[in-house]
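Quick start: what a row looks like.
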Amino acid sequence: MSEETLPAFSSLNIGDQVAGRDVEVTRDTLVRYAAASGDFNPIHYNDAFAQQVGLPGVIAHGMFTMGIGASVVEEWAGAGNVVDYQARFTRPVPVPALGAATVSVTAVVGALDHELQRARIDVTVTFEGAKVLGKAQAIVDCA
């Protein structure tokens, strides 16, 4: 990988937004993710079952939602430069039978490690204005 693909550490400042994107999630998206991941839990495709267990209806896979946040950082940082990514699931993303749920992602520089030339990127993932991931953070190697 060339240095051109690395974010320039010297140009980063705490508080800078480095990436952002809105992602539409449909039931088709959930079917494709279920096939790729092997997660066929009925809460991700069956409204009646989801409601029986106390959910508002079908919800997106938590790992898919987490992956949306990671993908936004990875697109900015370049393949292989995200060395760690963690998040907590705080609320589900209901996906309507028709139409889409729009998940919004912003990635902001939260801290800089000058010795290691690494940036902590704080990732905010929201649905209808509410955070769906808590303490989502990526560590990006800029050296």
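That is the whole record. The chain is about 25% helix and 35% strand. The chain has a mean pLDDT of 95.
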